[in-house]
Amino acid sequence: MSKASTRGVFFSLILLCLTVAIIVPINAYASETINAKSFSFEETTIIEFTNSGKEDVNSFRIWLGNDINFKSFKTESGWIGQKTPQGVIIFTSSEFVKSGESIKIGVKTDKINPGINWKALDKNEKQIEIGKTIPKELPKPINNEKISGENSGNGILSDSVFRIIPDKPSAGSTIRVTGDNFGALQQFDFYINTDKIGTFETDGDGHFISTVIIPKDQNVDRVDFSVKDKAGNEKKISLRIMEAETRKPVTENIKLTIKGIPDILHRGDFIEVSGTAQPNGGITASVKDIDETIINTRTAEVDSKGDWKIEPIIVPVDAPFGRYTAVISDGREEISTSWVVESGKVIIITPTALEFNPGETMKFNGTAPPNKTLEIILMDPLGDEKISDIIQVDESGIVEFAYPTKENVDKEGTWTLIAVQDRNKEFIFTGLGEPPSIPINIEFDKLNYKSTETATISLTGKPLDKLNMLIIDPSDKAKQFSDDSNVVSITLQQDGRKTYSLDLNGYASGTYTAVISKGSSKSSQIFTVGLQTGSGEIKISSTKSEYRPGEPILVLGKANQNVLLTLTLIDPDGNLWKTKEIFSDKVGNIKGGELRMPSKAKPGIWTINAKSGSNFNEIKIDVITSIEEGLVVTVNQGIEIPGFGKSINIKVVNAVQTVQIEIISSNGNVIETLSFPPTSKGEIKQPWFIPQGTASGTYTVKVKDGQNTAQTTFDIK
Question: Read out DSSP for 149-174?
């Protein structure tokens, strides 16, 4: 290139730079800092924002043009959306969208394929970029299309993920399937359980988004949706198929209503708000604080039956006391309701999220009266205790509790955290894999009653729930109520609570069970009548002699029949950790002897005491070290069976996935490889018979579960 031409290019570049400097404002960020792309299906649009710049994004704002309105919206876990009276939806989170990260937002509008304006802001509310996205149509499913040889490679990768929209599909409905981090330009099959219902292809970035139709004859039940590549690898999620809606004419006049808000609420309360409106429309709910300032706005779709509901609400732990008002509008009419937030609870604990994904750690925090012990019990949707603990609340009164869930092991649904201190008990709800719902529950004011007393029963559930209650007597027969029926119907109050008085006149001595039900949901509670602190020998035992902190304890034993006992757990320093009322049944077997070691139990000799009147019996148990963390494997000598030979017992604890076990000789050769899934407690107990002719020496047992590895040795003599 000549000097003249080089000089010409140089001056052209200077002129270009000066032109750009004049056009672009000096406070603007670099162009293409935020990449926004959207896809639309009927009235639903999915927007994906990707941060391609250097600034962390703290919030997004989206709005529509004239004559178009948002009907509802949904975003990823950890983000909160609020709609302003001006129609702008503001999405915020405590976590930033860092460079290279993305977030997806779903909205439903009253017109199809809307252009959506957006703005991205940093933590100081300073604009990073502003733009507008025009949605594209979802790509159609590929039917019997051959993929070229250029796309060969792995289809399902370790970080491949996909979602179903909506997350509560119904039979015969059209769903959207979107996925990321799959193999590029690959063909995949989409299944419900073992039935193939679609085929599609990823783009050059390993992303796909498509639509499929759920068969009309699909059963209403939980099913597995799976994406499979041509090698047979798959990614799977489990969702419940809902009942297909029966559409009603839009012209049907259904009154605008709201329910689920009691007259009085407390900090930390969990409520579900729902109502009715004109079918196939939408409602907007605005909440005003004690100063009549709008502090929250939410939207919801109205289904074809005229029903609507918004996501569950937890009253903030710092909510000011006073009267609040909610205004509900469907665009044609407007109604309002009010409630009072007042003091009253002494235990205030809330989950950090209403819904956790399987594999995430559930976290709870809050406050309780200081310098006292607090018992925590976490129950899964089936009512099984997953973990419990006794926490010593310090002078700050702050309570923190966490439980790491296990994907494909822990049951999805509503989980309940029960917090007990003195005579105060609170129920805290959160969801695993789906939003939580308030379950029904029954509690008696004490364990044992005289036949001349009246039992006070506390019932909880959703507001205005109609419950049926059944009493089972000591002979396992249904007890008749005063109207000669076996079942009594009870309707909960507006706040979802009800106190029922049960007259025990005519009840014989013994153990009874009260069962409440609503549809397929049930809850039960044992109570006793006429039991006494008795005379006679008491004999108790535990299922083992050594325990680790946090482990459950089962106390078994014998006493006189139909006797009340008091069970206590005492540490090595003589401190009383737990007192529990239990009883013996009609044949003298002790019932209700479930305890649990505190997670910070002091090592040493602990005492369990069972007392009834002047009679007592106690046993000693040994608490050793702290709970082992991570994958742990131990080997002990096993049994010897003629014809099979000697064996060893392999025990693995704290496993989170299927465990691969390798038996390795001293020279490094793998003798045998085994594979077993762990129990819900993360344990594997497996015998291994030593092959005949195995040489003497030191052998290694090596285990791995996809996240951790561990090993130990044993000798063959």
Answer: GGG-S-SS-TT-EEEEESSS-BTT-E
Quote the strand ranges of 310-357, DSSP E: 313-314, 322-329, 334-341, 348-351, 355-356
Query: What does the pLDDT read at residue 315?
Result: 82
What is residue 12's three-state secondary structure? helix
Instruction: Say if 60 falls within a structural domain.
Output: yes
Same domain flag for 334 and 412? no
Residue with tokens 């309940």: 416
CATH number of the domain bearing residue 85: 2.60.40.740
pLDDT digits (tens, 9 = 90+) for 640-664: 877 778 888 898 988 888 899 999 9
Alpha carbons 241 and 221: distance in angstroms, whole number: 5
Instruction: Give the domain extent around 155.
Output: 149-240
How many structural domains does the chain have? 7
Judge if 543 and 578 occupy the same domain: yes
pLDDT tens for each residue of 81-104 = 777 666 788 888 767 888 888 888
Confidence (pTM): 0.49
Q: Are 632 and 639 in contact (CB under 8 A)?
A: no
CA–CA dist 211, 176 (Å, integer): 5
How far is residue 151's CA from residue 155's CA, in Å, rounded to a whole number?
A: 9
* pLDDT above 60 for 10: no
Shared-domain flag, residues 471 and 548: no
* Helical (H) or strand (E) element with 178: strand 174-180
Exposure of 650 in the CB half-sphere (CA atoms within 13 A): 28
d(CA 317, CA 322): 14
CATH code for the domain of 451: 2.60.40.1930
Please state, in angstroms and rounded to a whole number, the distance separating the CA atoms of residues 609 and 657.
Answer: 39
How far is 338 from 317, CA to CA, in rounded Å? 19
**Is 496 a residue whose pLDDT tops 70?**
yes
Q: Please state the three-class secondary structure of 658-679 as a single string.
A: CEEEEEECCCCCEEEEEEECCC
Say yes or no: 549 and 515 in one domain: no
Domain boundary among 573, 599, 623: 623
Q: Token pair of 295, please?
A: 């502090």
Distance, in Å, from the CA atom of 523 to the CA atom of 486, rounded to the nearest integer, reads: 17
- CA-CA distance, 73 to 90, in Å (whole number)? 11
The residue behind tokens 């009154």 is 255
Distance CA 513, CA 441 (A): 14
End-to-end CA distance of the chain: 84
Spatial distance between the Cα atoms of 468 and 74, rounded to a whole number of angstroms: 36
Confidence of residue 153 (pLDDT cuts 50, 70, 90): low
121 and 181 share one domain: no
Look at residue 142 and tell me if it is in a domain: no
Provide the mean pLDDT of the chain.
82
What is the 3-state composition of the chain as percent helix, strand, coil, each rounded to the nearest 5? Answer: 5, 50, 45
Return phi, psi of residue 86, to 5°.
-85, 0
Digit-coded pLDDT (tens) for 264-275? 888 878 788 888
Q: Using CA atoms, how far apart are residues 152 and 467, in angstroms rounded to an integer?
A: 58
User: pLDDT tens for residues 431-484?
Assistant: 998 888 888 889 898 999 999 999 999 998 888 888 999 999 988 888 888 778
Q: Are 250 and 282 in contact (CB under 8 A)?
A: no
Is there a single domain that holds both residue 450 and residue 523? yes
Among the residue ranges 146-150, 441-445, 693-697, the one predicted with the least confidence is 146-150
Amino acid identity of 629? E
- Domain membership flag for residue 514: yes
Last residue of a domain, one of 88, 117, 137: 137
In a domain, 25, yes or no: no
- The model's pLDDT over 352-402, given as tens digits with 9 standing for 90+, comes to 988 999 889 999 998 888 888 888 889 888 877 788 888 888 888 889 999
